[in-house]
């Protein structure tokens, strides 16, 4: 495992208060997979370049979503993908997207939020769009 991935997983483990790195890895997989389906074009690739190489396919390989999701729908999609429980999925979403907000500059984060319906800024740990 490369150090960039280890750092990401350590951050998600801490932010999500996971007991094991394996739980953090599952959170990263499911959240980035759902996020990647809702991003298109350069924004998806630009974000992928900021994350460990192992995360790139999660953001770029999947099929685009057929319709946008509300913030609640986003969490429900993560729950349906891997976590089952809404509260566990919300913990995964806020942990992973909070780190995404830290690694992305304001311009990229603004472009990402523009692709998502209103209300998603809170999932990224932001009160207002950047």
Oligomeric state of shown chains: single chain
Characterize the largest beta sheet: strand count, sense, and whether it forms a barrel.
none
**Overall mean pLDDT:** 92
Rg over C-alpha atoms, rounded to the nearest angstrom: 13 Å
Helical content class: 55-70%
How far apart are the first and last residues' alpha carbons, in Å?
Answer: 33 Å
For the secondary structure, the number of strands is 0
Give the H and E element order: HHHHHHH
User: In percent, how much strand structure appears in the residues?
Assistant: under 5%
Extract low-pLDDT stretches. Answer: none
> What is the overall number of helices?
7
**Structural class by secondary-structure content:** mainly alpha
Shape: globular
Describe this entry's structure for a reader.
The protein is mainly alpha-helical and 130 residues long. The protein is 67% helix and 0% strand.
Question: What are the key terms here?
Answer:
130 residues, mainly alpha, globular
How is the topology of this model organized?
Blueprint: H1 3-16, H2 21-37, H3 41-50, H4 56-60, H5 71-83, H6 86-103, H7 106-115
Question: What does this entry show, briefly?
Answer:
The chain has 130 residues and is mainly alpha-helical.
């Amino acid at each position: 495992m490369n150090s960039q991935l280890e750092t990401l997983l350590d951050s998600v483990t801490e932010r999500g208060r996971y007991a094991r790195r394996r739980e953090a890895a599952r959170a990263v997989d499911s959240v980035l997979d759902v996020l990647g389906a809702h991003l298109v074009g350069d924004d998806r690739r630009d974000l992928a370049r900021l994350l460990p190489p192992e995360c790139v396919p999660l953001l770029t390989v999947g099929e685009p979503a057929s319709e946008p999701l509300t913030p609640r729908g986003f969490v429900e999609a993560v729950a349906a993908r891997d976590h089952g429980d809404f509260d566990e999925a919300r913990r995964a979403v806020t942990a992973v997207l909070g780190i995404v907000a830290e690694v992305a500059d304001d311009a990229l984060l603004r472009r990402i939020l523009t692709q998502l319906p209103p209300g998603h800024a809170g999932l990224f740990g932001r009160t207002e769009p950047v």
